[in-house]
Amino acid sequence: MSRDGQNDVNPDFLKTPPASSLWQDKDNQESHTEQDGADFSSIFAKDLLPANNGEEQTMRFLMEVFEILLNYIRKTFDRTSKVLDFHHPHQFLKGMEGFTLELPDQPESLEQILVDCRDTLKYGVKTGHPRFFNQLSSGLDVIGLVGEWLTSTANTNMFTFEIAPVFTIMEEVLLKKMSTVLRWSQDESDGIFLAGGAMSNLYSILAARYKRFPEVKTQGVASFPRMVLFTSELGHYSIMKGAMVLGLGTDNVIPVKCNSRGKIISAELEASIIEAKQKGFVPLYVNATAGTTVYGAFDPLNDIADICEKHNLWMHVDAAWGGGLLMSQKHRYKLTGIERANSVTWNPHKIMGVPLQCSAILIHEKGLLQNCNKMGAQYLFQKDKLYDVSYDTGDKTILCGRHVDVFKFWLMWKAKGTSGFEKQINKCLELAEYLHSKLKRRNDFKLVFDDKPEHTNVCFWYIPPSLQEMPESAERDSQLHQVAPKIKARMMEEGSLMVGYQPQGHNVNFFRMVFSNPATNKSDVDFLIEELVRLGKDL
Amino acid sequence: MSRDGQNDVNPDFLKTPPASSLWQDKDNQESHTEQDGADFSSIFAKDLLPANNGEEQTMRFLMEVFEILLNYIRKTFDRTSKVLDFHHPHQFLKGMEGFTLELPDQPESLEQILVDCRDTLKYGVKTGHPRFFNQLSSGLDVIGLVGEWLTSTANTNMFTFEIAPVFTIMEEVLLKKMSTVLRWSQDESDGIFLAGGAMSNLYSILAARYKRFPEVKTQGVASFPRMVLFTSELGHYSIMKGAMVLGLGTDNVIPVKCNSRGKIISAELEASIIEAKQKGFVPLYVNATAGTTVYGAFDPLNDIADICEKHNLWMHVDAAWGGGLLMSQKHRYKLTGIERANSVTWNPHKIMGVPLQCSAILIHEKGLLQNCNKMGAQYLFQKDKLYDVSYDTGDKTILCGRHVDVFKFWLMWKAKGTSGFEKQINKCLELAEYLHSKLKRRNDFKLVFDDKPEHTNVCFWYIPPSLQEMPESAERDSQLHQVAPKIKARMMEEGSLMVGYQPQGHNVNFFRMVFSNPATNKSDVDFLIEELVRLGKDL
C-alpha cells in the first residue's frame, strides 16, 4: 500500500465512529455498535490486517477498543465508580451472562471480542482508583500508560541493540541517571531492568556469589564453603526465595532481629556474622531494607555498611519500595548510606507510579553482571556485527528474551522531570502523615507505631465498639484478629475501597495503609476512616 | 465526577480531532497539532487526570497518541515502508534533531512527549513487518495487541485472585487447555506463565531438583550428591544459565551429541547417563528440544522418554519454539512422546504469534510447583480471605509480582479458535517448504540440510559469484564466513528486511530463515531471495 493509497478509504467510515462517541458511556449498551453503524458480528480476526483490504476494518475495530479503554480510564478516576465488582472464582469458571472464559475451537466474532474486553475490565480491579490502597503499586499514570501502549505496539525484545535500538539505549540512559541519584560514579555502575523486585534481589545474591567465588558458575555451589546470607526478620521473602533458587538453601538465610520500629539492630547483625564465621561458614551477603513491605521501615544503612566493610560482606539494599524517596530532597536522608552498597533493588513501579512492571537492579561494579551471567550464544550475540555490540545487553541477564520495561519510565521522566517525581512522592508522604495524625487522635483506631511514618505505610487496628472497653487479653487479641478480615471481605463485596491487612509477629491482623497513588487526596483518607467504621462498627 | 457529568465536555473539542485525521500520515508534519486545533505545547503531564478538570485534555492527548499508534500499525503492514531506519548507538546517545534521550529536571510539554513517541517508533524495528525474519517471535497480531493495550490499562499483578480476579482464572483456563493439547490428564497437570522460555526452562530444573531432593530448598545443593543434567549440544543456552543460577554449575550440564539433522542421538544420551552414574553422580534431568533454535530440529521424544523412565530421570521438553505445532493436526506428530514428559516449556509468543511475552511452563504433577517455590508470605497470602484462596497462585513462582501475560493469549484464542491457530501455523510451515524448494533449485544458494524442513527454520548460505567456482577449502570457508555478516550489515543500513545469521559447529556463518509472522507471503520469500542476491552479489 502506498502513501497515496492511505487516503483511499471508505468515505462512509470517515463519519463513524464520531469522535464524540468517545465521550459516552457505552458499557451498558449491549448493541451500541448498531447505533453508530459499525457491525462486528460478522467480522472475524481473519478479516483484520494483514488480510487483504483489512485496513479499514482493523482501524474501525481498534477505534472501538480504544473507546472501551477510554471509558475505563475515566471510570478509574471517578470516585463514584466502584473499585471492584467482586465475584468468586467459581462464578468466573462457570461463566457469567455473555462472558465465558472457555476457549473455543472455532473463532468468535469481533463483536464478542469487544464484549469480552468490556467484561474483563468490568470484573477486574481498578488499581488506579483513588481508593485502591491494597498494594505498594497503585495508580494509573497517563504518560506511563501511553508508554506501555507504545511498547506493546512496538512488540520487541531487549536482547540486542539490533532489534531494540532505541530501547536498549534508553535503558542505558535510565540506569546511568538512577546511579547518579544513588550518587555512584558512573564508570563504576551497572545494572539492568528486570521482572520485579524479587528477581532484582535474586540477581544481587547471584552477583555476590559470583564475586566471591567466580568458579561457582561452572562448578556449582557444592564445591565451595557454606555461604550464609543475612536479612532483616521483617525483610521481603524474596531473599529466602533467592537463596532457595540459587541452591544456597533457606536455612542459610539468617534473620536479623529488629528494634521496636522494625529496623535491623546492627549489633545483632554483627553478632550473627561473627557466629557464622565461628561455625566455619562464609558470611557472604547482607540485605538491608530501605522501606520494609509492611512497616515501611528503613534499616540503618551506614551502620550496616560499616559492618559489611569490616567483615567483607556484599551489601545489598532492597529499596524496591523506598528507592523512590531518593527523588525527594526532603526524604532522601532516610536512605543515607545507600551510596556505599554493592547493589540496590529499586522499583520505579512502586511509589514512582510507573506501570507494572519496572524494577531495576543496580550493581556498583562495571562488568560484573555480564561476567556473572554471560553464555555467549552465537545465534544472538555475534561479534561481527555492523554496530558497537557492547550495547547487546542480553547476556547480562539469566533470561534470553526480556520485556521492554524502560520506555514508559523514560517517557514519564521526560514528562514530569525529576521535579515532578519529587512532588508526587512528597504528596504521598504528606498523606501518610495526615492519616497518621488523624488516627492518633481517635479512640476507635490504634496505631501499630505511635511515631510519625518514615515511608507511606501506616499500620493500625480498627477497634469496634464491642472491643473498645475490653481489657488487653488473649481473648481480645483473638477477636481483634478477626476484625480486619471481616471488614476486608465486606469492602470487597461492596467494592468501595481496597486496603490490605496481615498479622506480623505478635501483632494480630492489622490494616496496612500505603500511599503510592497520585490520584489519592485527603478526602480519600477521610473516606477510608469513615468507611472502615461503617463496615466494622457492628463487629 | 458523575455519569451525568461525563457529557459536560467542551463542545469545541467534540469536533477535533476528526475521525478522518486518523487516516492521514502525520509523521512528517511537525506542527500538525496546530492544524487540527489541539495545541499541546503548553500542556504538561500534571494537567492530565487525576488533575481537576483534566479529563478533556487527557482524552485529547490519548487520541493523539492513538493516532500515532494507528499510523505505525498501518506502516508495519505496508511493504513499501522500511523494516528499520538504522542508526548507531552513538547517534542515539548524542541525540538526533528534536529527539534527545537525556532525562530532564523540569517537565517537558506534551507536544514534546508526542514527538518522542513518534521518534521512538520511527527509529525502532518493525517486528511485525512482513519482511522481518530476524527472530523466532515476529508479527503484530491485532487481537493480541488489543489484549496488551487492555492489560496495560488494567495495570495489575498476578500474585492474588484478589487483585487480578479475571486474569488468574484465565491463566487457569489456558493452562488446562494447553495440558489438554499436550494430552495430559487435567488432574495431574499444573503450570504457570513466566517471563520467557529461559525462565520456564529454569523452573523445570528447579522442579526436578526439588522432586528428587525436597530438602534442597532449606539445606541447599551442597548437602546432596552432585546432580547432572543432559541436553542436546544444539539445545538452548538457557539450560546452561539455569544450571548456573541454581548452583548446579555449568560443568554439570552434559551436552549430548546430535545426528546430522541436529537431533539428539539416543544411544549417546544413554551412554552419558551411565557414565555419570559410574562416576557417582546423580543423573537428574534431560532436556529434550522440540524445535531447536537454529536448525529447528525435533529430538526423538519417545526414545528419550524410554531412557528417562529406565534410569529415573526427569524429562523436560523445551518446546518453546516447537510447541505451537501441537496445534496442527498435520504437524503435531513431530512432538509425539511429549505426553510422557515431566515438564514442558511452550512459548505462545513464538509461532503462535502472541505478543511478547507469553511463555508457559507446564508441569505434569499437581502441586509440585507450589511446594517447590512457596514461602507463604503473610502480607499477601492470608488464609482468612473471603474467597477460595487456592486461586492465589503467586506462591507458585520465584517472583513476587508477576506481569499479566495471559489476557492477550486468551483473547487471541477466543478470536481465532483452535482452528485459527492451526491455519496460521500450517501457513508458516508451507512458506518454509516453499523457500526450501526454491533454494534447492538454485546454484547461488546452498542449504545446510537438503531434506525438507521439520519446523520453519531454513538454514542456508548465499554463495556470491566470486565463490561459486572456488573449490571447498579453508580459504573458501573463511571467505564464505564473512558473506552473511556483510549482507546483514547492508540490509540493516537499507532497512529492506531483517534475517539472522550465525555459525554453528563446523558450519561457517549461514543465514537462518524462520517463519512465524502471519503477514509474510510467498512474495516476501521471493523478495528475500532477490534481495540477498542484490545485496551480496559483489562480495
Automatic annotation (TrEMBL), chains A, B:
Name used for this protein in its record: Glutamate decarboxylase 1
SUPFAM superfamilies for this protein: PLP-dependent transferases (SSF53383)
Complex formation: Homodimer.
Biased amino acid composition, Basic and acidic residues: 24-35
InterPro entries: PyrdxlP-dep_de-COase, PyrdxlP-dep_Trfase, PyrdxlP-dep_Trfase_major
Molecular function GO terms recorded: glutamate decarboxylase activity; pyridoxal phosphate binding
Annotated spans, Disordered: 1-37
Purpose: Catalyzes the synthesis of the inhibitory neurotransmitter gamma-aminobutyric acid (GABA) with pyridoxal 5'-phosphate as cofactor.
Protein family: Belongs to the group II decarboxylase family.
Organism, scientific name: Chiloscyllium punctatum (Brownbanded bambooshark)
Reaction it catalyzes: L-glutamate + H(+) = 4-aminobutanoate + CO2
Keywords, ordered alphabetically: Decarboxylase, Lyase, Neurotransmitter biosynthesis, Phosphoprotein, Pyridoxal phosphate
GO BP: gamma-aminobutyric acid biosynthetic process
Matches recorded under PANTHER family: GLUTAMATE DECARBOXYLASE 1, GLUTAMATE DECARBOXYLASE-RELATED
